[in-house]
Each structure stands twice: as structure tokens, then as C-alpha cells.
Amino acid sequence: MYSYYNENTILYFDGAYTKATEAKIDLYGQSLHYGYAVFEGIRAYKTASGEVKIFKPKEHFERFKRSCELIHIPYKYNNDELIAACYKVLELNNLEEAYIRPLVFCPPNMTLKAATDTHLLICAWDWGAYLGEKLLRVCISSYQRPNPQAFKIESKAAGLYVNSILASQEAKEKGYDEALLLDINGFVAEGPGANLFYEKEGTIYTPATGNILPGITRATVIEICGELGIPLVEKQITVEELKGAEAVFYCGTAAEVIGWDSLDGEGFSKPWAGSLGKVIQQAYKAKVLNKEFKREAIPA
């Protein structure tokens, strides 16, 4: 089993730096019992200059705050101070390339009333690309993304990820690498922990917001498309359209940018090495490392 900490690991907990092995939480908290919590996934990289930089920390903590507000969890924190705490956690644990996990969780309360107080944790660990480096064999899940009228779908709330666990586990039990979830109307939504893009005739397409978590990496991919002059369209996407794509990829902070091999066992017409997705993957890596990116000709 992967070890996220050891006896020397230091984390940030309610304003203090403490050993992970000594931190304690109450077993009667709403977060433990009801999944009433909010988290973020953030990455730090050792950049081309040798400096360790957290990628888009302001954007992540703005979403962190917004997620709490959407589900009525009090947010009493200063984001600049939390960003500074992230850097301190990296320093104390001698981490240069790391995944950072801030979590706001709630104190003891067995009712279903909104929280009136919170706790805050920031931890970090060395974690490679979440979905690996190989092209993904993806299947359409029997699980759907929750109805936006039933949940604040754009909130990165802990409880929502039970849906992700179910979909991901189902895919693996069927022999696939990952799942694709549809929305309540049968349109393409997203992966259990990643947003989706596909290529068709020189244009990149991605599901519109409303039934997805609008990812920070998703926004970065859209930004990269603008910088490289790649046409991009946000729209409702049918399964038929997706199966007719030339190439497809997932993106997310944990997964970064990773291409697909197939959907429900059916491959795509364009090799990943010759796709716009591969160009975007390379541009994304250059961006997080603060390296200059020069777009090269795509192999035929």
C-alpha cells in the first residue's frame, strides 16, 4: 500500500506545524460521518530555474473557498497565508515535486445542519501522475454524474467522490484503466477525477460547464489552446461524437494530461504521437516547469 507519510512527516493543522503521526481528529465530526468537507489537489514542481513553485496556487485556493461557500461550510482563512503554509510544508518535508492536499473539515455534529466551525489540514507527498503514463483504456460507466439540481456539482466536496470511487472501481473490475461518466441527460461529462477533451478535424472539444467540476487544469488546457492558436469549442457532447473523435485525453492536477488508447475497446483514428493532445501535453509540462515551449510539427 502506498505510504503518504512516515514518522518524520510534517503537516499544517489548524495553524500549527505538527507531525502527521501526532495529529488527532474527533471521531464524531460531520466530515467523517457525512462526507461534509472540501478539498483541493495542487501540485508543486521543481522548475527549469531550480526553484520549487506551486502551480496556480491562487486559482486553487479561490476554488477552495468557493467550494466551501457553495455547501455552507464557513471559510475563515486567508488564502495568501494558506499558500505560504503550503510552501512551508514543502520545505519542512524536503519536497520539490509534490502533490499538496488542503482539506477543510467539520467538527463534531451529528445533525444535518450546516457547520458553524471548521478545521484545516494541509499535507503533501511525492506522487507521480495519478493515471500513469500509458494511454488509457476507458469504458463508459453505468454510474452518472449527480444531478446538478441535487448537488453543487462545481464544488470539490469530499462526499461527491464516492460517485468517483464507484465508477473507477467498476471500470477496473471490467479490465479497463478508467471510467467515463455521462450526465443525467446522457451527454459526456468527465472522468472520476479528470476533465475530458477530444480532437476532431483540427479543433479541440470539451464538455460545457454545468454538469462537471470546472478543473484548474481544464482551464489551463483552454489557455494553452488560445496560446497555440488551436480552435476550442465547449459544448454538449454525445457518446457517438466522442467515439468518432480522432484523439481523446483526460486532464487534471493529479493526472496532468494523459491520452486515451480506446473507449469501450474501440480505438481512435489518429495516433497519440501525432495528435493535438500530445502537443497540449507537452505544452502543459513546459508551463508547469516554467520552460519555453516551441511547438514542433506534428508527425504524419
Give your account of this protein's structure.
With 300 residues, the protein is of the alpha+beta class. It folds into 2 domains: 10-126, Aminotransferase class 4, branched-chain amino acid transferase, N-terminal domain (D-amino Acid Aminotransferase, Chain A, domain 1, 2-Layer Sandwich), CATH 3.30.470.10; 136-289, D-amino Acid Aminotransferase, Chain A, domain 2. The protein has 7 helices and 16 strands. The longest helix is centred in the N-terminal third of the chain and has 14 residues, at 57-70. The chain is globular.
Structural topology:
Elements: E1 10-13, E2 16-19, H1 30-34, E3 37-39, E4 42-46, E5 52-54, H2 57-70, H3 79-92, E6 98-105, E7 119-125, E8 136-144, H4 161-173, E9 178-182, E10 188-190, E11 195-200, E12 203-207, H5 216-228, E13 232-235, H6 239-243, E14 247-252, E15 256-263, E16 266-267, H7 276-288
Parallel strand pairs: 8-9, 8-15, 12-13
Antiparallel strand pairs: 1-2, 1-7, 3-6, 4-5, 4-6, 6-7, 9-10, 11-12, 11-14, 14-15, 15-16
Helix pairs in contact: 2-3
Catalytic activity: L-isoleucine + 2-oxoglutarate = (S)-3-methyl-2-oxopentanoate + L-glutamate; L-leucine + 2-oxoglutarate = 4-methyl-2-oxopentanoate + L-glutamate; L-valine + 2-oxoglutarate = 3-methyl-2-oxobutanoate + L-glutamate
Protein name: Branched-chain-amino-acid aminotransferase
Keywords: Amino-acid biosynthesis, Aminotransferase, Branched-chain amino acid biosynthesis, Pyridoxal phosphate, Transferase
